[in-house]
């Protein structure tokens, strides 16, 4: 349906990551992007299948307007199921059993965030597209239905963000003993700091192919803030004035 592609500015391409993604110069990694309103989202195969199903439903809405309300409800059910299954498979780790994964990695979390972000960006266009077809009573019902879905989806997506941040907090806790144990600090110097920097670097490397700048800044901003508070508290009372300590700090 040409109207679908035109109104939603929706297309799938094999593209080089655009400037809105954080990519070092010379990086030639390709990413599958789906675009809504000129904003690209790296997504998995499941989203391409979802878009195909939505396209089929959209044709039914305009071909048989007398069943439009029922079809639009099925569209909303499909979007809701995608959101729910994404949370169950990745956050709930059900994909370990159903897809044979050994573990759920930060890569999986980041990709799922962008899949949900794409759906979140698409839903308001769908709402506006279909509400204009309906009488006021049905339009109000459909609007309320989409609003609730968007609220739930945003909450679920935020749980994915929170999971990534919690992973980094847990890694901080595993190295915190080095910070609060003077004997280990004297023996190993600032080794724990090097470990933390390496962990943050790993997270950056994982997230940069997937996230827009503001998404990365949000995650790293909260993570670094937590690190600063935790390490400041851990170092309180350490006898850094002693000569041996000063040599290690230096």
TrEMBL record:
InterPro entries: Vps54, Vps54_C. Its main location: Golgi. GO terms for cellular component: cytosol; GARP complex. The lineage of its organism: Eukaryota, Discoba, Euglenozoa, Euglenida, Spirocuta. One of its GO terms (molecular function) is syntaxin binding. It comes from Eutreptiella gymnastica. One of its GO terms (biological process) is Golgi to vacuole transport. This is Vacuolar protein sorting-associated protein 54 C-terminal domain-containing protein. Belongs to the VPS54 family. Residues 40-171 form the Vacuolar protein sorting-associated protein 54 C-terminal domain. Pfam families: Vps54 (PF07928). Keywords: Coiled coil, Golgi apparatus, Protein transport, Transport. It comes from the Eukaryota. It is found in: Golgi apparatus, trans-Golgi network.
